[in-house]
Amino acid sequence: MDDAARLLQLVVNGAASGCIYGLIAFGFVLIYKATEMVNFAQGDIMMLGAFVAYSFIHQFGLNYWVGFGLAILVTALFGFLLDAIVLRRVIGQPQFAVVMLTLGLAFIFRAGAGLAWTYDSVGFNTPFTNKTVNLGGLVLGQDNVSILVGTLVLCGVLYLFFSRTRLGVAMQAASQNQLAAYYMGIPVRRIFSLIWAISAGVAAVAAVLLAPVSMIDVNMGFLGIKAFAAAVLGGFGSIPGAVIGGVIVGVVEQLSGYFLPPGFQDVTSNIVLLAVLILRPEGLFGKTIRKRV
Amino acid sequence: MRRPFKTLYEQDIRFWRQPSARWWYGLLLIALCAIPLISGEFYVGELAGLFIFAIAGVGLMLLTGYTGLVSLGHSAFLGIGAYTEAILLARGVPFYITLPASALVTGFAGVAIGIPTLRMSGLYLAIATLSFGSIVGTVLQKWETVTGGFDGLPVKAPYLFGVKLDGPEGVYYMSLLVLLFVIWLALNVLRSPLGRAFVAIRDSEVSAQSMGINLALYKTISFGLSAAITGLAGGLFAHYVRHLAPDAFDVLLSIQLVTIVFVGGLGSLHGAIFGAMFMRLLPQSIALIRDDLPNWLGRMPGLEPSIFGLILVLCIMYEPMGINGRWMKVKAYFKNFPMHKASAFRRQKSYAKSERLR
């Protein structure tokens, strides 16, 4: 019984950190589906979101929920401007130029955050810090449960947004076929910037949900590398796949930390990623797509 | 761009593009050989580091600039080369065997990662090599019985025919020699059918395949060759730092290597050298001006990486051909001096090219 409870707890912890990977991967996939760019700076946008939330909640002393909302808005605005000012100019350059561009941006974000805030680790109080919830004898940290619930709510909201609103449908159209979307009168460029805004906002949500579990510092963006495993596992073109892939990566990581000798936990996500790329490159949920000549 | 009018096939595959280049490069070589005689130890050491990064840059250029395969995991090859060199030297293997051996071991590692990633291209390859790099980095940290873990591994001084090649000057001449060899090798590869196949694969995989190029074979060769050259750089790097620490071979080093290739200019060996110059000289020049900057900026811990990032971003946005491209433009400007046309280098306008079929 004790062992089973321990395992279940590991699974929940893993699923919680997996949700964070999933939310970052969500950002990758959203941008990739729409613009065929891969944003290697997604993890660092999450880091910026965390610092913005830290400013609102800890430094300005705002209510947690107000600070949460403002952090999402500010980060989303940042994502919008990032696309409108920088990324839009490199459309048409080879895909890898964009990868290098976002890697360069990530360096700048890290230095900028260090300059604007601090290079030390910081944190802020949330309603979920250091509280537990008792589910039928299973004691779980509220922080982990809040991540799971928050991810579910966010996914639901975004699902409704993409399927029910005009803007969401326009976004789907723009990512399926840019040219046709233009002909239908969809302002594709603004839509793309809005997509960047949404994925930056999702990154901010991930950051605030992560806050009770982990400290905020300029290097937290390296979580983005683990999120690649999530995105690839989900097929790199499938939004639900990214979140589910994230959960799988998180759970596998926790379990390997428990069952395998120390040291393996750090590379689990990388091994999962390579294994998926070699054995099933289209991912668990992706479709095989042939390259156009 | 200045394109010499070629009338013969031999002109296209000649080793020296222009006969006069021989003399200029000869002069440069004499100057480089003379530098340790007249300059201080510090600059000799820095130049040796530059040569080592140039070797790695040439290796990565063959893969990224000429075959069009992107690797974000080349720090792993540098690390494998460095550790092979250090471990073999510690076991008492002579230096003239250890350096080729580190190239060979790294080459095999390159083939080993090349084969499973054959079907990937572009983005997936970048991600796969990124995670390969971090796996190797973790292995170097955790496999303590062999690599010494976080304590690192001291590197013995190499002896060549009874001469101790120690200190900056020894490393300088070794790296210069290896760099010359690597450039000679790369130039010859590029004018052989092998290099032609690489370029064909870069320009279009499908048309290369339809001309009878065995994609799997040539991509694997490219990976192996690139890794082996980077491994050579790694072996020299071990002597350059003299004490290996596993955290030197992390993702940031890979990004630096790719930055060499990008900022230098994709698809030219000059670019690899220019990129290495940029990569090694920038920290020095930042250190020089740091004291003159306002305090909040000069004392900023992340100043160096952020300037790297900024230059990388500006380079991709405004000069995708890199330093080499800018150099060609300046050269062309003076070559046809009064007749300079602003549109001569205008980039072909391209729209978002879809890489997927839908």
Give a structural overview.
The complex is a heterodimer of chains A (293) and B (358). In chain A, 71% of the residues lie in helices and 3% in strands. Chain A has 293 residues and is an all-alpha fold. In chain A, helix 2 (42-59) runs parallel beside helix 4 (95-116). The model of chain A has no long low-confidence stretch (mean pLDDT 83). Chain B has 358 residues and is mainly α. Chain B is 69% helix and 2% strand. In chain B, the strands form 2 sheets. A two-stranded antiparallel ribbon of chain B has the order 1-4. Chain B has a two-stranded antiparallel ribbon with strand order 2-3. The longest helix of chain B is centred in the middle third of the chain and has 27 residues, at 215-241. Chains A and B meet through helix 4, helix 9 and helix 11 of A and helix 6, helix 10, helix 12 and helix 15 of B.
What's this entry about, in short?
By secondary structure, chain A is mostly helical. Chain A has helices at 2-35, 42-59, 64-85, 95-116, 142-164, 166-176, 178-183, 188-210, 223-233, 239-259, 264-279; strands at residues 132-135, 138-141.
Radius of gyration of chain A: 19 Å
Tell me the domain tally of chain A.
1
Largest sheet of chain A: 2 strands, antiparallel
Rounded Rg of chain B: 21 Å
Q: What's the multimeric state?
A: heterodimer
Query: Which class of secondary structure composition applies to the elements of chain A?
Result: mainly alpha
Order of the strands making up the biggest sheet of chain A: 1-2
CATH C-level label of chain A: Mainly Alpha
Give a short account of the largest sheet of chain B. 2 strands, antiparallel
CATH architecture of chain A: Orthogonal Bundle
